[in-house]
């Protein structure tokens, strides 16, 4: 059966984004050959939200203390594109990848499936 997930981020500067995940976020990785990094993600969960708009997919990193994580990553040079906001179900923000893309970061207030 399914034993993992593989997330693909498309980037205008894939090498810089790989280096960011490896060096700034400190995620373990393997080299699949020729410097092509496959980065280990922390435990993950998936949610399906209804929409009447175009279907899209988003990536959020989870943390236990969003304000502290923002301070730590800002000190490492990470740019945040939105202030931390209260969405009711959690506190969230977005950070910019070196290639220009963005990913979310949030502190959940709900039970996390990663704890199962």
Overall body shape = globular
What is the radius of gyration? 15 Å
Low-confidence stretches: none
CATH superfamily assignment?
2,3-Dihydroxybiphenyl 1,2-Dioxygenase, domain 1
* Number of structural units classed as domains: 1
The CATH topology is given as 2,3-Dihydroxybiphenyl 1,2-Dioxygenase, domain 1
Number of helices: 2
Q: How many strands, which pairing sense, and closed or not: the largest β-sheet? A: 4 strands, mixed
Question: What is the H-and-E element order?
Answer: HEEEHEEE
CATH architecture: Roll
For the secondary structure, the number of strands is 6
Structural class assignment: alpha+beta
Strand order within the widest beta sheet: 3-6-5-4
Overview of this structure, please?
This protein is of the alpha+beta class and 116 residues long. It has one domain: 2,3-Dihydroxybiphenyl 1,2-Dioxygenase, domain 1 (Roll), CATH 3.10.180. The protein is 18% helix and 26% strand. It is built from two helices and six strands, in the order αβββαβββ. It has helices spanning 14-24, 66-75; strands at 29-31, 37-39, 60-62, 80-86, 90-96, 102-108. The strands form two sheets. Strands 3-6-5-4 form a four-stranded mixed sheet, with helices on one face. Strand 4 (80-86) and strand 5 (90-96) form a beta hairpin. The protein is globular, with a radius of gyration of 15 Å. The two termini are 18 Å apart.
């Amino acid at each position: 059966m399914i034993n993992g997930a593989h997330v693909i981020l498309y980037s205008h500067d894939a090498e810089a984004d790989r280096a960011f995940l490896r060096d700034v976020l400190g995620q373990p990785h393997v080299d699949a050959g020729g410097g092509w990094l496959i980065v280990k993600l922390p435990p993950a969960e998936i949610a399906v939200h209804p929409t009447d708009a175009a279907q899209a997919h988003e990536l959020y990193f989870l943390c236990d203390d969003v304000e502290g994580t923002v301070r730590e990553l800002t000190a490492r040079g990470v740019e945040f594109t939105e202030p931390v906001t209260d969405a009711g179900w959690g506190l969230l923000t977005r950070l910019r990848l070196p290639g220009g893309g963005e990913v979310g970061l949030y502190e959940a207030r709900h039970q996390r499936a990663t704890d199962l």
